[in-house]
Amino acid sequence: MTAPVAPAVDTSAPVAAGAPPWGLLSVLWVSQNLGIGFLTVGLVAILRSDGASLEELSLVSLLGLAWPLKLLWAPLLDRYGSRRLGHHRSWLLVLQPAMVVALLALLPFGDPAAALGPLVAVCALYVLLSATQDVATDALGVRLLRPQDRGLGNGVQVGASYVGTVLGGGLCVLVYDRAGWAAAVLLLAALTLIALAVVLRFREPERDPRVPGSAAWGALIGVFRRPGVPRWALGVVPLVYGGAAGVYALPSAALVDAGWSLTRIGVVTGVVVSVPAALAGPLAGWLVRRWGRAVVLAAGGVGLAAATAGLVPLLRGAVPLAGTVAALGGFLVAYTALNVVVYTVSMDLCRPATAGTDFTTLTTVPLIAAFLTASAALATAALVGYVASAALWCVVALAGVVLGVGWLRAAPLR
Fold first, then answer.
1. What CATH superfamily is the domain 21-209?
2. What is the pTM of this model?
3. 3-class secondary structure for the chain?
């Protein structure tokens, strides 16, 4: 059996010689997930409480599909930018206030279920702006984080996504329940505006070299031509992400079958279990720096298998509250560790000149895998039951972990 081909990794010094801008990156990563958390968790609960049908709620859920579309225009953010204002900072100076305006455009929808079509259109615009902001933020992360800081940086990124979900999908829903729609929307806009203040104070190091126009879109394919990248990005990552997403697609449906309300499901799955996952992100990032990428990937796989076993009572119809929360929380903690490693290695494989495009391309692959296998897992469950389906997709994830550990052991990333 031949050893995996080691990737060509750029481990040179980052653009910035000083300490990484943790405050900037943290608030930007939280900011982009505030509205997403509100739309995918909070808005679903609000609409359901107002009498929206499941078919209408599925329309809202489709908003998530807009996130991978950023791949189409990510090269623009690498190609164009202001030298005076900072290449990627100049994009953030436009995108961050645009996200605030898009949120404020939700104010007229005091009765969300009464004008669902226009509401979804405004939400779709916000998702596209947020996704584009993510490209600019991740490009800064690739350029400004030193190789030894990338694990912690991506741990912060994953943790920030859960913080955004807790604030947007939890806190804002509580504000809505107590003070109404306008108060919840204004809170979202105000929290998003905080990140703009941080961007205004940030001074981005000059970016050099610039990406030639002919090379901008070529980077979408060019990153896969680097030695070792296809094995990781098209082999390991889809198995890890797809398997984990397949397992996690099952508990929500099982909870509905067990008689839980959608509001209770949303609070538990979107808020309560997000807290330990948010804490696990930075911890996993610190462990990546201390133990290495391969060890944390292996530990995440073991944790995922244990948590999947813990979900068996739920999947068989028994839903003890404490056990269910513990199993779901444990699963998200393990998934977070896997996510941190995937994002860290993706950042390792990026080229500084096309950082936004490369990172977006490499992280879109797992998103697509997650969407596809989540649907496939539910179809599998219809044929063989929840438990057998969960076992199958857990094995898929573990196969990816085993392949990934072998790949990392042969790569200069430890």
1. MFS general substrate transporter like domains (1.20.1250.20)
2. 0.77
3. CCCCCCCCCCCCCCCCCCCCCHHHHHHHHHHHHHHHHHHHHHHHHHHHHCCCCHHHHHHHHHHHHHHHHHHHCHHHHHHCCECCCEHHHHHHHHHHHHHHHHHHCCCCCCCHHHHHHHHHHHHHHHHHHHHHHHHHHHHHHHHHCCHHHHHHHHHHHHHHHHHHHHHHHHHHHHHHHHHCHHHHHHHHHHHHHHHHHHHHHCCCCCCCCCCCHHHHCCHHHHHHHCCCHHHHHHHHHHHHHHHHHHHHHHHHHHHHHCCCCHHHHHHHHHHHCHHHHHHHHHHHHHHHHHHCHHHHHHHHHHHHHHHHHHCHHHHCCCCCHHHHHHHHHHHHHHHHHHHHHHHHHHHHCCCHHHHHHHHHHHHHHHHHHHHHHHHHHHHHHHHHCHHHHHHHHHHHHHHHHHHHHHHHHCCCCC
